[in-house]
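Margin note: ligand = iron/sulfur cluster.
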Amino acid sequence: MEFSPFGRPCEFSSRGAKYTRRISLPTSTTSKHRVVSGMRPTGRLHLGQYHGVLKNWIQLQHEYECFLFVADWHALTTHYEESDKINDLVYAMVTDWLAAGVNPGSAKIFVQSRVPQHAELHLLLSMITPLGWLERVPSFKDQQQKLPDRDLSTYGFLGYPLLQSADILMYKAGIVPVGEDQVAHIELTREVARRFNHIYGSEKDFVNKAEDAIKKMGKKNSKVYRDLRKRFQEQGEHEAVDVGRALIESQQNITRGDRERLYGYLEGGGRIILPEPEEMLTDAAKMPGLDGQKMSKSYNNTITLRDTPKEIEKKIKKMPTDPARIRKTDAGDPEKCAVWKWHQVYSDDSIKNSVKEGCRSASIGCIECKQHIINAVVEELVPIQDRAKEYMKDTSIVKSIIAEGCDAARDIAEETMEEVRQAMGLMY
Ligand code: TRP
Ligand code: SF4
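Resulting structure:
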């Protein structure tokens, strides 16, 4: 068999989607193996980001072509008054990524502002993005309320999710690993891509061009393509689209323009220049903060990847416990205790059972209970910190990793921009 539907092994791709959600229908198969994700350098990386995002990236890098970047412009949308701090945070962030296991040999690591094509695409997309779409993104009002001491009634902040759309569409990413709070941004990205393709993907003689493109696939494949197209458009068989995309993807000798036409024609639309991405939900709730709420810099309840063992110990010792346990002889209820949530992340069943038992029967004290967590966090972070120290000894290594990643990202970004400019008629 020459090609097969997504999600099943097939000859030309062994990268199956192993993650929680099926990647339903990204609109181009070139994108399906590509992951884009960014992180804002607004502070030191903390355990919430490590468990929620970074560990996920480190897994994905083996299966997908990953574009991982520092979203420094996104940091500016809220932290524009502290722009002088961003530089150090960018290097510290990439250092921590590397120390945690992001591999520059498999993932492209870059900095958003060093790929200025992001700004160009953002600008061009802004022309076709209705204001209402941005105003109704929940994070727009939420963040304004959550950060009342910052003036976020700016043009840049309103455009935050659209800049994110540009980040994603630039690389034609099929998959974007994000937390729950970002899902609306990915939805917006899909809407914007659809609108772009609708406005700029419809050519006057599209049908003729698409028919020519079909012929270029050769007799046998042309027939298969036509059958699949019919099966989808007449019988509504979604699987036929999957198979058709795989077929298009497996074609070596067709131009990018023809490929976009074939994707679009398969489903009955115009050319697909910017494919629609899917979110891959990462579980940010996995890592509670020191107070039991979600770990977040703005709640001041974090342990950062750079905290020393002493600082870690101090922070965990201060964690609130079940308020009913005033003395060691008072029985406690782990369900009412933030420390217990940390055991879910760090402890094996035998520790968990002995803690549960010991807490309820007042046979262990909270200090002893917390010591397990202190040990586990220190054990987790010390090797990362050791590697970070190595990178910090010679900063030229991190700098050149970033420079290389930026070069690679820029090459792909420029390709996309050429298509975008051409589709819009901006090739002078
Ligand atoms: N907005 C994202 C966040 O706050 C960061 C981000 C910027 C991003 N651009 C992106 C994430 C593109 C995924 C893809 O977490
Ligand atoms: Fe919390 Fe552990 Fe103390 Fe129980 S023993 S209240 S779980 S810290």
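The first strand starts at residue 34 and ends at 39.
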